Amino acid sequence: MTLMHDAGIEESMTIARSRELRIATYNLHGAVGIDGKFAPERIGEVLNEIDADIFALQEVPLGGANAPDVLDVLRRMTNLHAVEGPTLDTPARRYGNAVLTRYPVRAVRTLDLSFRTREPRGALDADIDCGGETWRVVATHLGLASGERRAQVEQVLQTFDTPALPVILLGDLNEWFVYGRTLRRLVTHFHRASALRTFPTRYPLFALDRIWVHPGERLMRVDVHRTRLSRVASDHYPLIARISAPSTLIDR
Question: Residue limits of the Endonuclease/exonuclease/phosphatase domain (predicted)?
Fold first, then answer.
């Protein structure tokens, strides 16, 4: 009787998970924790705690002659597909955005969001086949200055003029103000999403990391992943969203 009961619980959990996508965004801080230690494996452990279907990652060392390849470490630890979107790409050092996903990636585009002489920024734009439904996933890390962010958001939104696919826009938006112009502009294309404090991990004050979904009714909930490990692994907490599957997939 116990075995049958346990099997029923496991089957119910599998069905429930198949009816949603679990999406996460995480600024890795170069895999350097708040204790000052460079520890890619610790980041990998946090990702395995979350067990998301798709991760958008920022501040990722991507290798080079004088730099480690943190993305490769994370790919091997999670056994997920990896897509890189470097914003700094030199023979000595490659660095920027990345996506890890358990689902097939059908297309990849990159968008250069660099603003004047400020630090190079970009967006990684991927079409991902999530079990029969293709989502457009745009992972980004915006700039530190308000004018820079406004220009970058306008550039990103221009690519959504005729959205043929459902869209997830996520990443570290670096917007300190809840009602800042950057967020107000995003609301014109996306439903307002929960603003949960993710930075800094020692004492979270700011909702820098965001997940936006279109159509908005598909967004079920948003949570911060706060554990003993995630508090130390980076200066940002990961942010997790649960997205419902369309009824056509649920009824199969």
Answer: 24-236
* CA angle (140 as vertex; 134, 61 as ends), nearest 5: 110
Residue 9, domain member (yes or no): no
- CATH assignment at residue 52: 3.60.10.10
What pTM does this model have? 0.88
Question: 4 burial class (0-12, 13-18, 19+ CB within 10 angstroms)?
Answer: exposed
Q: Would you say residue 5 lies in a domain?
A: no
Does a structural domain hold residue 90?
Answer: yes
CA angle 53, 54, 60 (to 5 degrees): 140
What tens digit of pLDDT does each residue of 157-203 get?
Answer: 888 765 578 999 999 999 877 667 778 788 777 877 788 999 999 99
Q: Which domain holds residue 200?
A: 21-250
Tally of structural domains, the chain: 1
Structure tokens at 223: 């949570």
pLDDT given at position 85 = 95
Residue 51 has pLDDT above 50, yes or no: yes
Residue 137 lies in a domain: yes
Please return the burial class of 5, using the count of CB atoms within 10 Å of its CB with bins 0-12, 13-18 and 19+: exposed
